[in-house]
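hey can u check if this looks right to u? its 232 residues, i copy pasted from the old doc so theres a chance i mangled smth
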Amino acid sequence: MKKLFVANWKRYLNTDESVALWSELSNVSSEKFDLVVAPNHLAIDQIADKPNAHALAAQDAFYENEGAYTGIVSSEDLKEIGVSYVIVGHSERRAMGETDETVAKKVEAVLKAQLIPIICVGESKEERNEGKAQTKVQSQVEVGCSLAPMGSQMIIAYEPIWAISKDGKGDPIKPEDAESMMSHIKELKGHRVLYGGSVKPKNIESFTSLESCSGVLVGSASTKLESLKNML
């Protein structure tokens, strides 16, 4: 089975740039990875009209499908336009006040729409330095998955908050520390576990070669064609 490569384009690319890069990827294949692309919400609909061999993900989705919720996008909306995966609980969403309980409701909604959630978990630098990383991540995993029916297909992405690059700058965790955490996550739930946090062409193999790693979640390094091709 191939590993999973999730390209989270965040807001690094505007809609036109996202569509252009997606089109360039139509001729790109990989013997190692299945590629999943998560563009901004406005780009998804246009990209879905240009299907290729790769899958589409959304960067977030709300937990209700209808009602007085200004500005939300639901999992059902995303399913209708061809999305297969939804990233849930990214640390950049948690920094805006998203809680583990909210993540759990979003996971439940994603599964009800028959999509696959990619649940992001990870500790702060302070929590790691204080020896609380495993406790924090275990709590995020357990609460985040708490409303999911038994046997649900889910993916857990371990992204230490302090290792996530900003504007291309960031320091990844040591591979042996990543393996320790990912193996613990896998023991908890048995789902596929991805690593994310400053993944680049020069270090990707040090993570994908880990026993517990089923793939990667990549941010800024996935927004340029040559960098992306070098990793795939």
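The chain has a mean pLDDT of 96.
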